[in-house]
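New to this. Comment on this protein:
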Amino acid sequence: MVIAPSVTSMERPVSDTLYRNIVKGHHLGLDLRDITRAAEDQGFRVERTKRGHVVIYPPDKRFPPVVFSGTPGDQRSIKNGLARLRQAGFIWPWAGRREKRR
C-alpha cells in the first residue's frame, strides 16, 4: 500500500475558482491592468484574444500591435511591452488616472 504524502500549504494546488479568474483575466497583474487603462485613455485600442493574451493597438497604424501575456510570468515582459508601446507614442507613467482617483 502506497501512502501519498500530505500536501503542505506551499504545495497546495490552485483552486478552480482562482484558475478560472486567472484565465478570464480577473487576476491580471496590477501593472498590466494600469497599462491597459492608460492605453485606452490615450486612444489605444485594447483587446483580449481567445487564448487570454492582451493586445494593444496603437492609434498610429505605422506601429505594430503589442501583445502581452494574460498572466505575465515576470516583470521583464511587461517592461519590454512598455518599451514597444512608448515607441508608438504611449506616455508612461500616465497621470490621468491618478488625478481622477483623488
Remarks:
- Confidence is low (pLDDT under 50) at residues 6-12, 18-28.
